[in-house]
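Note to self: keep these together.
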Amino acid sequence: MKFTKILQFCAIVLSLSSCNDNDEENYTPITATYPAVEAEFGSSVDLNNLANYANQAVPAYITKDNSALNPISDKGATLGRILFYDKKMSVDNTVSCSSCHKQEFAFSDNTIASNGVNSTTGRHSMRLINTRFATESKFFWDERAASLEIQTTMPIKDHGEMGFSGANGDLSFNDLIVKLSAIDYYKELFKFVYGSEEITETKIQFALAQFIRSIQSFDSKYDTGRASAPNDGAPFANFTAQENQGKNLFLTPPTFNASGSRTGGGIGCAGCHRAPEFDIDPNTKNNGIIGTLSGVGIDITNTRAPSLRDLVKVDGTTNGQMMHTGVITSLQAAIGHYGTINIAPGNTNLDPRLTPGGIGQQLNLTAAEVNSVIAFLRTLSGTDVYTNTKWSNPFN
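Structure:
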């Protein structure tokens, strides 16, 4: 009897296996449905066919990565993209993260001060290119946010920017959570990403940070040259003589005489902006620009900078103004600033690398040297980041 039952069981298993084999080409996988997401976003967000955020190609020579505590996932970054572009994240539904960080300007702004719900930003909006590939983990120009995760919700809780401050008559961040919890597409999205419809600030922070860290740019002329070169300092075969000269000037430290004038070498930009990521050295201090957007007082606390990648577009046009005050509007002006450093009264935080022997550096660059550095900086720009739909507005 037992033997007969075993034979019957085996026959059922073999029958099922045979059916699966024979019908494999006709098998249609069951996909989940997300009616609210589909109604709001149409084909721009497909939760059954996610964009690749987690496994993008990264060049072997890129070694810095600050995402270990919050690894990028396709699900998390998809949610982050929607949060990044959603104007419902502001108290009056007029402003989103993308209002100050625009894809067409390498996720910076083309105005000196960005518009918020109640006022303008106190500093120029920083570009969000390759934030993952940096040693520095603090954010904002003055590094007041200990991590990108913490930074992501600080503008939301700012009275002037997005308005959920919980002070001065503003709604609180908890009011935002209540607001989002009533939106059907967020019910589906948070359940999809976290297994629960519950929305918390930490979940918002993690998703936004994953999306921002996913924004990467490695399709530049520099990357093509670096991929076939043994190191950053070697001549790049695809560079012009001018671009290679600019690279050498950028990478090579200068030598100075007792009066602070350059006597040889390069101009040492890489001492703070470190190749090949071109991220900012966490130990940098103020760069000599101490103005404020209000024009009142001085601001010497600004010690951070974004990556120099996509500082301008490939054609040389700017991605908005530069520096925390937006006072620099061209590469020539940026190089000129570092060419003659004046130690302004009250600037007790000036980076010592700019003051050899305690004297403001005088690089004494020739016109040819300036043009070669400009040519090199333009090689750091790609094209994909400006148009790739996975970083675009899903509400369009």
